[in-house]
Amino acid sequence: MSDIKFGTDGWRGRIADDYTYANVRRVAQGFASYLKTTGREGPVVVGHDRRFSAEHFAAAASEVLAGNGFSVLLTPGPTPTPVISFSVRANGAIGAVNITASHNPPEDCGFKVRDHNGGAIDPDGLKAIEALIPDAQDTAAIRRIPFEKALADGTIAYFDPKPPYLAHLRNLIEVEPIRNAGLKIVVDNMWGNGAGWLSEILGGGRTEVIEVHAERNPIFPEMSRPEPIPPNVDAGLAVARSVGADCVCILDGDADRCGFGDERGAFVDQLRVYALLAYYLLEVRGLRGPIVKTLSTTSMLDKLGKLYDVPVINTGVGFKYVAPAMLKHDALIGGEESGGYAFRGHLPERDGILSNLYLLDFMVRTGKKPTELIQMVFEKVGAHYYDRIDIRLTDNAMKEEARRRLAAVDVSTLTLGGHRVTELITLDGYKFVMEDGGWLLIRFSGTEPLLRIYTETTDPQAVRAILADGRKLVGV
After folding, report:
1. pLDDT tens digit sequence for 48-77
2. Gap between the Cα atoms of 146 and 22, Å rounded
3. What is the CATH number assigned to the segment(s) 385-474?
4. What is the pTM for the complete model shown?
5. Helix then strand then coil, % of the chain, to nearest 5
6. What is the SS3 assignment for 57?
7. Please, are residues 258 and 339 in contact by the beta-carbon 8 Å criterion?
8. For residue 459, how many C-alpha atoms fall within 13 Å in the half-sphere facing its CB?
9. What is the CB-side half-sphere exposure of residue 146 using CA atoms within 13 A?
10. Based on the number of CB atoms within 10 Å of its own CB, is 135 exposed (0-12), middle (13-18) or buried (19 or more)?
């Protein structure tokens, strides 16, 4: 068994601790060996984010892929994750490596892998990659070609991923009405890969785009991490209030996740954003198709599914579950609680750029402000309220004690925030469903040593009480 484990979305570690050049090469060798088992032929795309030394880790991974006989298409600079994923399809590649830790703290870096569809590799595939990672002492098992030599002989080649991606977007959404709508939009890039992309797409018309946190700064000032939720987004929202923006488009560190702020500079939580996107596709654009959702996201989707007669498929948390389900069911939309949304006709992969463009299109087509759009959805499914708390696990004993307590819960007598629990779902963690349709989910993060406690309810007064009761259940 390898000492390197893949979580919800690849491998992440602390730079210079377990995330080292030696370990990156080991993981790249495991992925190269896995790609050979698929029987597919073609290049491998490699990209990276703006974290410390990410471009050098990408070069190290490229050396190993080249040493294993693969031609490597390397992005020339920091590139949004959805653009890297789209580049797999655009170039007939058999997979991709993306050096990014997404929304993790600045001390971390990561190694995401993608399949020939540009989507996340399923759990069985990730286990297969893990099993093929060489032992730390087996340096002879790692085949590599020095970077400069591979560049010189063309085994590694830089390529421009932007033109095909932007051309594809034009097939999905008409941006001219947004460009000429006269909106004032603040874009918070969270110091990440999305900087400049929305400005380029929407520039040249009456709409004004004001970018914040657009430079490269691996320590992520004004936020603890580039995760598109409060308090990390507070500084960007404050800029929006100061300039009187119509909305705030937020991209996480690698631009695959979407955050959103309304015309008052208030954050719109990611469950409401998912409901907005689904309603936009179903009602405004008149499209139909299954909805794929992780069990940690909104029950508003279940209600929309019934209203529009489309199936709703629930999965475990992470796009390693969502992506295969989207492909299997030809889903209209797929998404998760963390703000990642994917769309049919595009990729089985999150795209924060396209998600924000769809929200802007929703505003332009209806002539409504974000708060009015939310009210439109609530008129269909009722008002819903959400919050989440993250608890850092300081040691394994704390984690095991939480597991023990959860396994011992008697659901038949349980109430949360004054609401009786009627069902327990253990697909991924412990999801307690309440009599009003609300829920509490307690699960361990697949990317960090965190215990996450989430709730969504139709009772606005009960949110804090439900979360507090969740903390009591695990004894923290």
Report:
1. 999 999 999 999 999 999 999 999 999 999
2. 14
3. 3.30.310.50
4. 0.93
5. 40, 20, 40
6. helix
7. yes
8. 20
9. 3
10. exposed
Buried b (16+ CB within 10 A) or exposed e, 70-108: bebbbbeebbbbbbbbbbbbbbebbbbbbbbbbbbebbb
385-392 and 450-457 as β-strands: parallel, antiparallel, unpaired?
Answer: antiparallel
| Residues forming CATH 3.40.120.10 domain(s) in the chain | 11-163, 172-381
Q: Is 213 in contact with 189 (CB distance < 8 Å)?
A: yes
Cβ neighbors of 326 (< 8 A, separation 6 or more) are: 119, 292, 334, 342, 344, 348
Preceding omega of 231 cis (within 30 degrees of 0): yes
Residues of the chain with CATH 3.30.310.50: 385-474
**DSSP classification of residue 460:** G
Residue 87 is predicted with a pLDDT of: 98
- Residue 363's nearest CA partner among 372, 350, 355, 354 is 372
Topology adopted by domain 172-381: Alpha-D-Glucose-1,6-Bisphosphate; Chain A, domain 3 (3.40.120)
Q: Which two tokens stand for residue 20?
A: 């080292």
Which CATH superfamily, name and number, covers 11-163? Alpha-D-Glucose-1,6-Bisphosphate, subunit A, domain 3 (3.40.120.10)
Kindly report, residue by residue over 126-143, the tens digit of the pLDDT.
999 999 999 999 999 999
